[in-house]
Amino acid sequence: MTSSFEDLLPSTERALLRRIAVAQTEGRSPSFVAGVMRGGRTAWSGSRSCVDGHAPDADTQFRIGSITKVFTAVLVMRLRDEGLIGLDDPLEKHLQGTGVGEVTIAQLLSHSAGLAAETPSPWWERTPGSTRPGLADVLGEQPVLHPAGRLFHYSNPGYTLLGSLVETLRGVSWEEALRTEILEPLGLGRTTVQPVAPHAGGWAVHPWADVMLPEPLEDLGIMAPAGVLWSTVEDLCRFAAFLAEGDDRVLCRTSVAEMRVPAVPPAAGDGMWGYGLGVQLMRSGDRTFVGHTGSLPGFVAGLWVDPDEGLAAVALANATSGPLAAAVAADLVRIVAEAEPRIPEPWRPLPAAEVDDELLALTGPWYWGTYGFGLRVGAGRAVTLEPLKGVGRRASFRALPDGGWIGLDGYYQGETLRVVRRPDGSVSHLDLGSFVFTREPYEPGDAVPGGVDEAGWRGL
Asked: Based on the number of CB atoms within 10 Å of its own CB, is 75 exposed (0-12), middle (13-18) or buried (19 or more)?
């Protein structure tokens, strides 16, 4: 007997609604809307508003600020996957005359290029983009403040440079590349550069009185790749599903996972665990969240994904300050994960075409010295090497076209695992970055570096 667990329990839905109701009340936000993604779709959405009977829904646009940076990072990773750039390339190799020296594309993605946090005056978020017509107006006379690669220093101008890189290599505007390469393939029809009704208005709420003031709506011009987008709960839940699993129409699962690897530790006291390639990383309890926060005058936003649980949450509010959208999004994920833990997919055997006797013969125990490891075969001829007991250097490996495997994570990431055979064709040992794995620990006659004592094993 099978059951559908796509819909949330009424008790879980009530807990979610209560959380956003508290956020709207305590944050004094004109409106607050949120949603939860589970199993690749929007499993729940809810909202609260100060106007009776006029609450936003999952199709109402809010401005999402720096969540835009994740979209820009995906466009850059697509360039890398197509071989048009390398992440370690200096930006100047592809975009000349910026004046930022030898900073690399990876450093720009991870905010470790040492660039200034903001543009020269006036405040770019509250002034027309026409006041900064070119990169020189965005970067100013001293664009680099810190040595590249040494520390995390969040930089909005850095993402302006990445947007210009996309435009230079694609030959179209950043907006056009975004639309054709991400929004259309993923079906994000309500994610736009300019607001499209129905959309929320941006408000500033007085910190000491229950009164409001409308915030100006500015076109950010060349700064658009750093924070211009408007989106909805429904669209962002779809985007969260992509960040959890990847989508070959946009970016493969492996490349999306690469974005989630910490590239640099955060600055002390900013609440983050790390920053990857265009995504923030936050650890809360035993959970690691991947996503981004966002704000522009009149709006705050938060998007967090828990890839291990296959869960994500989005929270959007139309107030300059007050509502803690990012904290709410994390709480929504936690509420669902604790109330309704993920039910694993049923076990299924591998397709017959992916398994052969030669591959099966490699499975089981192997020994690096006296350390025991088990080799397990997975889908697509992938393998996993894991300690037989305790903690140790566990790693997953992807099969290479010409034989062998490449490490995907942990200590052996990027290292090559290969089978070494004797002249008669039988397997001698496994070689992993010069480490030798044999079928027995220090077996005489095996290819053990340094040899094995002729007297063999002995007692006291």
From this structure: buried
Listed in sequence order, the residues at least 6 apart from 48 whose beta carbon sits closer than 8 Å to its beta carbon are 20, 21, 23, 24, 25, 31, 32, 55
Give pLDDT tens digits for 285-329.
Answer: 788 999 999 999 999 999 999 999 999 999 999 999 989 999 999
Structure tokens at 254: 């492996």
Q: Is the peptide bond before 133 cis (omega within 30 degrees of 0)?
A: no
User: How does pLDDT run across 87-132, given as a tens digit for each residue?
Assistant: 999 999 999 999 898 999 999 999 999 999 999 888 888 888 888 8
Residues 6+ apart with CB under 8 A from 18: none
Give the closest residue to 34 by CA, choosing from 313, 388, 408. 313
| Cβ pair 387, 367 in contact under 8 A | no
Residues 6+ apart with CB under 8 A from 401: none
Residues 182/171, Cβ–Cβ less than 8 Å? no
Tokens of 216: 């100006």
Quote the crossing angle between the two packed helices 68-81 and 156-170, to the nearest 10°.
Answer: 40
Which residues have a Cβ under 8 Å from the Cβ of 418 and sit 6 or more positions away?
Answer: 403, 404, 405, 430, 431, 432
pLDDT tens, residue by residue, 222-236? 999 999 999 999 999
Strand runs labelled E in 50-151: 62-63
Token duo for residue 363? 């499975």
pTM to 2 decimals?
A: 0.88
The answer for residues whose C-beta is within 8 angstroms of residue 427's C-beta and 6 or more apart is 361, 362, 419, 420, 421
Residue 139: C-alpha distances to residues 42, 102, 116, 379 (Å): 39, 15, 8, 48
Q: How confident is the model at residue 266 (pLDDT cuts 50, 70, 90)?
A: low
- Which two structure tokens, joined as six digits, stand for 26? 């305590």
